[in-house]
Write a structure and sequence with these properties.
The protein contains 8 helices and 15 strands. With 263 residues, the protein is α+β, with helices and mostly antiparallel strands. The chain has 2 domains: 140 residues, Fructose-1,6-Bisphosphatase, subunit A, domain 1 (Fructose-1,6-Bisphosphatase, Chain A, domain 1, 2-Layer Sandwich), CATH 3.30.540.10; 109 residues, D-Maltodextrin-Binding Protein, domain 2, CATH 3.40.190.80. Strand 3 and strand 4 form a beta hairpin. The termini are far apart.
Length: 263
């Protein structure tokens, strides 16, 4: 596959930044304000803010790139067999949003032939934004960032959002692996991956994710020098399962994969 040209990368990034700014303009004024919450079929919460942000993003993408596909949390998939597909998570961390907790974000990814080539992780309340171009580097608020050099579990700070995301078998594997780390912490939703890309923590292990939860994050982490795969060590794409490992270095990633593989 021919890589994107510098001009193409800039065009896509400029567009993604513009619509991420639009998303902020919709979500921030509603944060810590009364908002109606309903439960979806899987019992996860959704608000009018989630739906409004995704609707706006889909409209902007359809207008600018009518042949591109779309995958979003609230309104599903359109043309996902297209060469280019945009992945949208309008509010990653809806539970945090409705709790007044500032660690929620908007995730945007551009996939080419099923693989993420551009990722945007935007944290509106914190005014922090990561942009990752596959194979080209990651920036945080315009400044290049890199993962740490941690290579062993014994020296790693490891995060996951919540124990509730794991099945009993997955929890046993996570618990064993994370207890071997220097420190394990809970919480953060997408923010943990930003902290990993910026060199503040060393690993994130999660399960029960959907593609729009991880597709934007993978290029952010990997272009910063990290490794992000499923629990079997396979590259992430549209058809990956919901279990992911993100690590600061290949050596740390290999150690985590080995530990998780033990039954």
């Amino acid at each position: 596959m021919e890589p994107l040209s510098a001009a193409e990368r800039k065009e896509f990034e400029d567009f993604a930044v513009a619509i991420a700014n639009n998303a902020r303009a919709l979500s921030l004024p509603r944060f810590r304000r009364p908002v109606d919450v309903t439960l979806k079929g899987d019992m996860s919460p959704v608000t009018a803010v989630d739906r409004g942000v995704e609707s706006m993003l889909r409209e902007r993408i359809e207008l600018a790139w009518p042949t591109h596909g779309l995958l979003g949390e609230e309104y599903g998939a359109t043309r996902v067999d297209a060469e280019y597909v945009w992945s949208i998570d309008p509010i990653d961390g809806t539970r945090s949003f409705i709790s007044g907790w500032p660690l929620w974000g908007t995730l945007l990814a551009l996939l080419r032939h099923g693989q993420p080539v551009l990722g945007v992780l935007d944290m509106p309340v914190l005014d922090e934004r990561w942009i990752g171009h596959a194979g080209r580097g990651t920036t945080m608020n315009g400044v290049p960032c890199r993962t740490r050099s941690c290579e062993t579990l014994a020296t790693a700070t490891l995060y996951t959002t919540t124990p509730d995301m794991f099945t009993p078998d997955e929890w046993a594997r996570f618990d064993r692996t994370s207890r071997a780390a220097y420190a394990r912490r809970f919480g953060g939703d997408c923010y943990g991956y930003g902290m990993l890309a910026a060199g503040h923590i060393d690993a994130v292990i999660e399960a029960n994710l959907m593609p729009y939860d991880y597709l934007a994050i993978a290029p952010v982490v990997e272009a910063a020098g990290g490794v992000m795969t499923d629990w079997e060590g396979r590259a992430l794409g549209l058809d990956s399962g919901g279990r992911v490992v993100a690590a600061a270095t290949p050596a740390l990633h290999a150690a985590i994969i080995e530990s998780l593989a033990r039954g």
